[in-house]
């Protein structure tokens, strides 16, 4: 009897505190800090950028603290990355807490034997995120607290719905072009934004010149492969230059989806919110 009690206790102690996918879906976003507690600088080894990217990849709506949406803070989860002390190994555990500091998720350890610091940290982080793959997380839309507009509270989502009505009221071609520039095209403001094209994950990085587009891959040590750069040129138009020097027209729509026009084909990278 004592043996069975011991086995039950052992099983409970080693099973990660991982709530169901539906519990994670009860929250509409997750906040990733700009710096993890065990490191001495922001985004060291790109661990914070990678975490945000991987959260988005696995169905979360991830934001850095400074990008937190205008929403109820208790609608969100708050990410922590814990480094477990180990000899000759790097071990990470992902923890998600609610606005009151209660744990909603504690994942299994991501473990690597790689010795080089940067590679080890990135590899352990990726392995810690692997446990989200079978959970089918799909956080819903973020409910904005709204903003004051004409004396009324207008939910953020309504801005997109208003676009067609605004365009219909425009009479001249010049006015229509102006509306298209200001309303139809919504440029990503985040330092890093996640995208998807044909099941492949991409990362868009905001730069001083425009944006750089990367493909998530295992062929590089950083896990990212530069695809090309998006820059604003004459007459306010955007162009995409790939790594071979080919130049194509580029644009963003009201949902921040990226379109690249190649010959008669338009490639659309979907923004992952």
Walkthrough of the structure:
With 273 residues, this protein is α+β, with helices and mostly antiparallel strands. It has three domains: 13-132, Rossmann fold; 147-183, no CATH class; 185-272, Lipocalin. Helices cover 24% and strands 33% of the residues. It contains six helices and 16 strands. The chain has helices at 2-14, 21-25, 47-57, 117-129, 158-168, 173-184; strands spanning 29-32, 62-64, 76-84, 90-97, 103-106, 110-112, 147-149, 152-154, 192-197, 200-206, 210-216, 224-232, 238-242, 247-252, 258-262, 265-272. The strands form three sheets. Strands 9-10-11-12-13-14-15-16 form an eight-stranded antiparallel barrel. Strand 12 (224-232) and strand 13 form a beta hairpin. Helix 3 runs parallel beside helix 4 (117-129). The longest helix is centred in the first third of the chain and has 13 residues, at 2-14. 23% of the residues are buried.
CATH topology of the largest domain: Rossmann fold
Q: Structural class given helices, strands, pairing? A: alpha+beta
Strand content: 25-35%
Q: What is the first-to-last residue Cα distance?
A: 51 Å
Quaternary state of the chains: single chain
Q: If you average the pLDDT, what whole number results?
A: 78
* Main sheet record: 8 strands, antiparallel, barrel
- How many structural units, i.e. domains? 3
Order of helices and strands: HHEHEEEEEHEEHHEEEEEEEE
- The helix content is 10-25%
Approximate shape: globular
* Helical stretch tally: 6
**Main β-sheet, spatial strand arrangement:** 9-10-11-12-13-14-15-16
């Amino acid at each position: 009897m004592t043996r069975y009690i011991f086995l039950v206790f052992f099983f409970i102690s080693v099973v990660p505190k991982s709530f169901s996918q539906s519990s994670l879906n009860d929250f509409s976003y997750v906040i990733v800090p700009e710096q993890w507690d065990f490191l001495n600088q922001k985004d060291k080894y790109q661990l914070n950028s990678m975490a945000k990217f991987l959260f988005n990849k696995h169905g979360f709506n991830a934001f850095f603290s400074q990008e937190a949406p205008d929403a109820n803070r208790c609608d969100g989860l708050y990410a922590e990355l814990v480094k477990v002390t180990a000899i000759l190994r790097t071990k990470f555990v992902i923890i998600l807490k609610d606005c009151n500091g209660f744990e909603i998720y504690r994942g299994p350890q991501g473990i690597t034997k790689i010795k080089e610091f940067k590679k080890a940290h990135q590899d352990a982080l990726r392995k810690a995120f692997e446990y989200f793959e079978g959970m089918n997380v799909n956080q819903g839309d973020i409910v904005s607290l709204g903003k004051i507009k004409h004396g009324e509270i207008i939910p953020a989502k309504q801005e997109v719905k208003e676009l067609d009505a605004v365009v219909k009221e425009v009479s001249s071609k010049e006015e229509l072009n102006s509306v298209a520039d200001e309303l139809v095209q919504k440029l990503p403001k985040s330092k890093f934004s996640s995208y998807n094209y044909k099941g492949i994950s991409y990362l868009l990085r905001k730069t001083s010149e425009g944006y750089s587009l990367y493909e998530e891959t295992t062929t590089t040590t950083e896990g990212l492969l530069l695809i090309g750069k998006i820059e604003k040129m004459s007459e306010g138009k955007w162009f995409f230059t790939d790594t071979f020097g080919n130049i194509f027209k580029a644009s963003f729509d009201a949902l921040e989806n990226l379109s690249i026009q190649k010959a008669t084909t338009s490639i659309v990278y979907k923004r992952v919110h």
